[in-house]
Amino acid sequence: MIPNEAKLQQLKKQYPEGTRIRLLHMNDPHAVPQGTLGTVYDIDDTGSLLVHWDNGQGLNVLYGIDRVERVSGNLEKEGVNEISHQMNTIWNYSQSILQESTELKAMIEQLYDAKEGRALNGKTRTELLETVAQTQARLREIAQKLGG
Q1: pTM of the full predicted structure?
Q2: Which of 50, 58, 89, 127 is 20 to 30 Å apart from 21, CA to CA?
Q3: How would residue 117 be classed by pLDDT, with cut points 50, 70 and 90?
Q4: Residue range of the domain that includes 126
């Protein structure tokens, strides 16, 4: 069943871009799980809602077959709170990386000075090799944290 132009316009008013929805039913063997939240980003000519599902799935809501409900209020506030929490986590992580990079920079500068024959600050060859090993280990740790 394809909606007429008047029904399409009604759907576009009812579900404008950015509308948050919850899936009630989807008739598909690979259906998005019932209760999943998503954001409408468009409506096609067949009346299907094009949705960015929060779980990453990409199925459309088919007009006249699948069912959704609009969500608002507390769920939107919870979404903002979740985003705020994620931003705080990212901020804390970036501060940690910044601190590590500052320490690493000091270690690398010390190694460079030694390579260039500048003051070794009383360090022996063995101590410099330990600093090289520590620097390499820290670089590996940071690369691992960053997914490298």
Answers
A1: 0.49
A2: 89
A3: low
A4: 79-145
